Amino acid sequence: MQDDAIERISNARTFLFVPASRPERLGKALTSGADVVIVDLEDAVAPEDKVAARAALIQKLDPAHPVLVRINDAGTPWFDGDLAIAGRPGVLGFMLSKAEPGSGLDRTVAACPVVALIESASGMAAVQTIAATEGVCRLAFGTIDLALDLGIGDEDLLFSFGLQLVLASRAARLPSPIHGVTPEFRDPKVVQAAMIAASRSGFGAKMCIHPAQITPTLAALMPTEEEFAWAKRVKAAADVGQGVAVALDGKMVDRPVIERALRILHNASGVPRGAS
Predict the structure, then answer these.
(1) Distance CA 96, CA 102 (A)
(2) What is the pTM of this model?
(3) Which candidate, 133, 101, 136, 93, places its Cα nearest to that of 120?
(4) Per-residue pLDDT tens for 8-21?
(5) Per DSSP, what are the bridge partners of residue 70?
């Protein structure tokens, strides 16, 4: 079961949040088309409501529709109670808020598969250590909280920190990391543009705060028509070469180029972006 959970988390491209304090929204979230639903016990729940929200979540857990649970970090009084729901049928794994090296991370990965949410200066400084921790199956980029912690007012300035998650993920042989939320959800173009930029930086998934963000996120992760056509031509040339480097458009097609083309074709599970 744990291997199945890790595989699902690893392959997911859209992660949709739903507040644990609004259990009536869970059904809609599960039918939204999101690859993984995250039931949030942290930021979306007021301190005075956290215990009741956790109890409501336990009542809603369904083994047929397992969810990822964002738990409160180890420095809060709710951490132990949140941790206790690990292993219950219907819990896919945990997203650990403000993941940092230490006993909190160690106890969490011992309980279930973990998506480590990097959203603090301490977490970012230790991102490679976190990524290499056994039991961490993916990294997520908490852009809003990290910007607040660092005193950065322009989210564009977080670009270099995002690259650190991409590098740490690759070095630890983890799937590509999950990009942070986009507050705008009414305009799909804004969401799609944000994911296109994130994808070009090496991110392969996004945290969504509204079902309306799912479609533009998936569209952004599709290759363009030009990329798709190029990848098909590279694969065709590679098939002819049978493992030997060949020339295409005056350039050598070797293993790294072929692997990039195959990745584009793998991502093109639907209609290439821009196609009618």
Answers:
(1) 12
(2) 0.88
(3) 101
(4) 999 999 999 999 99
(5) 40, 95
